[in-house]
Amino acid sequence: MAVDAQTEVVDLSMTSLRELNQRLHGLPADASSGPVRWRIVKPSGGHAIACGLDAPLEVEIDGHVGYYCAGMNKQATVRVHGNAGVGLAENIMSGLVVVDGNASQAAGATARGGLIVIEGDASARCGISLKGGDIVVKGSVGHMSAFMAQTGRIVVLGDAGEALGDSLYEVRIYVRGSVKSLGADCIEKDVRDEHAAELRELLEAAGAGDADPSGFRRYGSARRLYNFNVDHAGEY
Amino acid sequence: MCGIVGLFAKAPAIEQALGRHVHDMLVQMNDRGPDSAGVAIYRDPAPPGSCKLTLQHPDDAYAWEPLCAEALEEFGGEARIDRRANHAVLHLDAIAETAEEWVGRAHPELRLMSAGAVIELYKEVGLPRLFAERFRLADLAGSHALGHTRMATESRVTTDGSHPFSTGLDLCLVHNGSLSNHNRVRERLRREGIVFRTENDTEVAAGYLTWRLREGASLVEALEGCLTDLDGFYTFAVGTADGFAVLRDPIACKPAVMAETDDWVAMASEYRAIATLPGADDARIWEPEPATVYSWERELV
Amino acid sequence: MAHSDTTGTTPDTTRDRLSDIVGRVARHGLRESALFDRATIHEIQRAASEGIYDIRGFGAKRRVPHFDDLLFLGASVSRYPLEGYRERCDTNVTLGTRYASEPIELKIPITIAGMSFGALSAPAKEALGRGASEVGTSTTTGDGGMTEEERGHSDTLVYQVLPSRYGMNPDDLRRADAIEVVVGQGAKPGGGGMLLGHKISDRVAAMRNLPKGIDQRSACRHPDWTGPDDLEIKIHELREITDWRKPIYVKVGATRTYYDVQLAVKAGADVIVVDGMQGGTAATQDVFIEHVGIPTLPAVGLAVQALQELDMHRKVQLIVSGGIRSGADVAKALALGADAVSIGVAALIALGDNSPEFDDEYAKLGSAAGFYDDYQAGRDPTGISTQDDALAARFDPILGGRRLANYLRVLTLEAQTLARACGKSHVHNLEPEDMVALTLEASAITGIPLVGTNFAFRPESFAKAVLEALTPAANGRIPEGTRRP
After folding, report:
1. Contact: B287, A63; criterion CB under 8 Å
2. Which of A90, B189, C277, C334 has its C-alpha lying 20 to 30 A from C366's C-alpha?
3. Alpha-helix residue ranges (DSSP H) falling in C101-242
4. Which of C51, C168, C243 sits opposite A91 (nearest CB)?
5. Residue B297: which pLDDT band, with cuts at 50, 70 and 90?
């Protein structure tokens, strides 16, 4: 990305993380004043970089980031030109987070909105406890992905590890590659027209518009764990 | 709970600067393990028929020099002692088992940290970044090293409770996580003759590996045995004379990052430790799969 | 063993039935088993009928060592009391002094514990906010997120970050006054939240992103961190998101409390909340409530010891909960070294839970006033632990708030009374030496001397006493453990 006069460059080997995040937090939520474009260099695997943003900023990070990058993001676009550690964009509310490389465990954990795109692989527990966000992984995802995922969509162009969608609620999962095993209450379901349309939209938004939706299988909840068999007051 | 680092040199330049790199990696893991730190570094091989012992005394003022003369008198040949903070590496002309037995008898006031042909093991309580300075890690060259920073969970913060734990000749173990069945396993191992000095869960894992290896298992088999015989959360890194191995439990909640370039293979609990290494930006980075043993060995010349 | 009844007629009123049972016990020499008592027999038969564990609310009901086993040594010839009403006994407490730029100031050292909207009705949450604010203390959200009612009515609100992350969002994080990372709670350390389908109303479902009417499943670990080393990084993230302004609490259910408290300190907590096994819940398995965790009494001492060894006592503040009922409990917890206490079940009772005026309704539910613990069923006639609109409408949040404020004032006045009697101008100056233990158990548990002796029944005390007994008595000192003349 070319550096121009309107991009604020911050070197994390010179500026503290606290100062960077506070500056980013200090910007108005409507981006009525800037800088709106930021470039962060020398992240060196640091944690909580660009977390808690709440403005339509464009943030580029040159290098690898540690845990919780873009945690609880609102409105902003954050691009990591490297790998991401644990909990990438955890609890994201809206906006876009893109990682060029791989993401570690719990990528997109409890995400409530927005879109997370992982160009490489995501490791275990991708989309754990998902609460409305969308995740597109162009590589593969590790074991226990979509564990207790409630609502939202997950698309995997590669393979999925063991126990996919264990204890799933209403999330729709699309996988193109192989699935090592399915978790409790997760089953394969038909890809109907509305699903194909949804999948096409997600692939387009993630820059994978040339992937053919018909190559994917859909997974969802069997809904057998939705109610206990219990009634205390009246039964006995 | 803790931080783990490991570095295996593939190029001479990395070997020369091994200690400096391990120092930098350890400092990055200071916050997740502020109670104590330790390093096992493989270097300066003892010729066949001789061995190296790393010994420790709590008092910085302990007089190590006489040990050399005593060793010469006992075993003949050559003897050398290299001191580092309150530890010292004693080279002597005997096989390790004999040397260990002699030191234990002649100097019960000393703690034996490690024994073997190449391993040196330093560990102490206190902040990792202070440990690294105090032990002048940056001076050391070597072929590979494992380091650890400790946040004690259910046992006391002591020298003995620090990692790495030495599990046998040229062998050591570091651990991030928390075992849940170590008390019963400890009792079983005690009956097999394994000696324990602490209530630490990691010491049990180290003892388990020693026992399995003693009974004829390969390192890979012994580590795979952990998957059935040990319960809990763990990322293990084991050091051997020739290299190191890594294993994560099947649930794999505790972190582990691996990286490799033409010049080195590295492992750490967090990427930011690996980020200190030359060429880290372009390294191949991946995470070990759960319940899978990974190992690296140098080719023996 | 069945005996034939010789009176001939079958009794049908409740009173007749009771006197019939009493009569039969007397006439036939019936003995109830201590092991298989009526309640146990009932539970086994229920389990055989339903095939699922018993789920209930409330806290542990069985007797365990508690603050009642400690007594204060009031003023005497050697110590002088403070006059009530005229001579100050202060009660304020500051929480979050370690790292937060905006620590919390409370007027009283009693806070309202986390209880979810979902477990409780909206008006009940509002009442908690009103009552707490009236006396200058805080409330805590629960496993369901922050409601407008609670934020609107609570002057000081602590926002919980739980394994479920229901309703979690940065805006609420920022408008909270403190953040509480929940590792566990006393009723079920190692368990997660539980809410059954009939309490997942439209509103609750929307807040928790769940389908309406299904049973919520619980996560017992956090999704994006496990272990104190990674908790440290998580706490750091929460601080970065909130610009280091707000205190971060870590809450644990009391189990390995000594280690947990040290680890919470190492992970960077400003405040630690320790919830003893007696702590209440809206719903979990009865076996979990009764058989997991340690009581509050030992937990306080373990937590204080852990803090003292790290030289963090009073620097990282300690809040204890689980069975706080009166100002005596408050004072004793503070005397043992806590900075504040938290109430849950007691607050609900103050609002009106288990009130005798609803006894007829409790009877219809198969229960009785003073015995009702079926919070999980969502049919609470008082409108407190229910999501049913009609039932919740019965609960007046303004009246409820006033009742809670009254109760909090009584707790405070009682604690002040005891503290003044011990000569303290601030409740925080209460100390373990102001107390004696009534039982050997309590003495061993707390390290406080057994009443009538100056000996605390602990290994260290025994060792010390033996050494002193073997040494010739010097300075005419009275050796440990001997009776006073």
Report:
1. no
2. C277
3. 122-135, 148-153, 170-175, 202-208, 228-241
4. C168
5. confident
